[in-house]
Amino acid sequence: MMNRFFYGTIKQSYLILVALLLITSVNKTNHSLMAQSASAVMTFKDSTYNFGDVAEERGSVVCNFGFKNTGNAPLVISRVTSDCGCTSPDWPREAIAPGESSVIKVAYNPLGRPGPFIKRVYIYSNSQNGMKALTIKGDVSTTSNHAGLMYPLVVGPLRLTDQKFIFPPVKRGSTHTMRIKSYNSDKSHPIKVHILHTPSFITLDKTEYEVGPIEPLEIPIHILKNKALSIKMHNEPLYFEVENYSGTKSKGNIIIVAPIVDDFAEYKSMEDILNGSPKLALNTYYDLGKVTSLNPQKIDIEIKNEGKKTLKIEDISCENPAIKHPRKIGPIKPGQSKTLTLEVLPQVIKEKGWKGISSNVNIICNDPSAPLRKVKVKINI
């Protein structure tokens, strides 16, 4: 009898313990679910603001981005950043209670920045939807027509900063990126830009772009990472087509210039370059002054190797048709010199209708400390 009572008591105690554990587990689960469901949510009515035409001389312009905490926990903004010093955000430092609203103010300073712009502001907070990006855009006009000076090349509605884009010296087998800057001058309609042909020494991310009204377009161009590229001053056109809203197409081109130089892989340190490399020495400025004769004018340039290894002149180039030059001159041993002879042609200058020229002759060599040299030649007629 006693055993039956003893075991019955134990069984009841066990069931009571299991029940208590289940209740505790359920309470913990409910608390966990409640904690998980309590979160802040930052909701904006609009994430883009278009200032339209912004007069440079009137100074900074400001817009407000209204938002609401649509979550069920306080919203705290930890920081707000922008992608340019010209853009200044201001935000509430106090917590925003659930259901409450507030604003983020964004100021843009147009001084010295004529032309179209797109800038972004990034908001970091405890919002469930993570980091939020806001966008401002517009077109800065100026009474001094700086925008026209910044974008002088016109192809249909597309405006570009230049007819020619020049890379810095790029080592063969490596790469470098430049951006072709332009914008759509049509204030009401988008345009399409199609790249028709690219220079043999570059690559593009894509060949078709759609640009909204008064929006900028930057086209990245990359030097081919190819060790087979010739060591020389590469100079080739990039052809493109601009299509407006009505389907009218305008064709244009720009010139891409890239000096490809040796990779200098044989030099492992600056000490190697200082103690065991060629070194080119020459005068880099020649002003012939006023010339009345139309006879060719010769310039003899002494090129001296002041280094420790043989100097090789890989390429000589000049885009000006009034300057004649050889493509190469032979190797120059350490301590020796050779003469590079240029011929300036006043007759060509006159035929072109120029009053004179001020042009560079480019020399690419195997001097690792300065593989590209420019010799300036000036003359008036």
Automatic annotation (TrEMBL):
Positions of the PG-0320-like C-terminal domain: 156-261
Domain HYDIN/VesB/CFA65-like Ig-like intervals: 278-378
Keywords linked to the UniProt accession: Cell projection, Cilium, Cytoplasm, Hydrolase, Protease, Thiol protease
Main location: other
Segment forming the signal sequence: none
Keyword check for ATP-binding: no
Subcellular location: Cell projection, Cilium; Cytoplasm
Similarity-based family: Belongs to the peptidase C25 family.
UniProt-recorded name of the protein: DUF1573 domain-containing protein
Organism of provenance: Falsiporphyromonas endometrii
